Amino acid sequence: MTYYGTEKQQRLQRQSDEAQPKIAATPGLVQAGRFFSVDNFDLIDWAFVDERLAQDGVFGFRMMSATCIEDIRLKLGPSYRVDVWSVCRADRTAATRACTAILEDDIPGGLTRVNLTADPGDDAVRAVQTCMAENGIAPFSGAMLAGNIVPAVTIALADAQGHVVATAHANIPFNTHSKHSGTAWVGLIAVAAQQRGKGLGRLVNALAVRAAFETLGADEVVEFVHADNIISRRMIEACSLRLVPGILCGLATPIVDARFTT
Ligand SMILES: CC(C)(COP(=O)(O)OP(=O)(O)OC[C@H]1O[C@@H](n2cnc3c(N)ncnc32)[C@H](O)[C@@H]1OP(=O)(O)O)[C@@H](O)C(=O)NCCC(=O)NCCS
């Protein structure tokens, strides 16, 4: 079984995996892993947005201007909320310099890198999904994490008992029609509560950012951070990513629902 989380999370993971041929072929669609998402306001078919919101209870808008997000709020009306995340970006030169410095230090004692295979049903993939879910991150399917849906690298560290205690992920979510097609996304950063504040978040984030350039061949990297997540923002900035003013990612949900992810 490659899906993990609540019934809703698993249903949406499956839907995202199965929709990849459509997402790759359709200008404006993005492989966001956990729900349908678009990256071009002008290409949005609102009937599709309305239908998916009614069925899925969540819809993503990536790399939108703040004005577009306001237009989306107006279009959706009072039954829906649009939670927003700021976009931070780095190019290869700045990120390589910052991440190389972070990665000069050894992995802290007692922790080891977990080697994930291409098998989405692997126990290690399940342990990564569990770590994400336990730390407030809505997980991806095993196939997404294993890089079987879009090009992707998943990072994990385990403690001496073999428990996964830190995760990160890089992938290429934008299709070839997108102006962001050379951009990798890094996210799904989770550190177990008892291991926080020791630089592990910065470390796995740096490993994922480096993999985005070296393994996935990206031209630039973006990460998304919510305004209430100061620690995540510092972690991201330590890897040289900087806020892109006026550009946001939005997640529409019914007003009564909790925020979909951290
Ligand atoms: C965000 C998270 C991954 C950070 O992991 P971590 O291992 O505790 O972070 P680090 O120890 O590497 O610290 C990262 C930065 O935050 C700072 N920081 C860490 N804990 C802090 C705290 N309690 N208060 C203020 N700053 C703090 C560190 O000093 C560091 O900044 P610096 O490089 O400027 O010194 C972790 O808190 C977590 O799993 N949170 C829940 C899931 C989440 O929010 N994920 C990110 C969304 S994608």
From TrEMBL:
It comes from the Bacteria. Residues 111-262 form the N-acetyltransferase domain. GO terms for molecular function: acyltransferase activity, transferring groups other than amino-acyl groups. InterPro entries: Acyl_CoA_acyltransferase, GNAT_dom. Residues 1-20 are annotated as: Disordered. Residues 8-20 have a biased composition (Basic and acidic residues). Pfam families: Acetyltransf_1. This is N-acetyltransferase domain-containing protein.
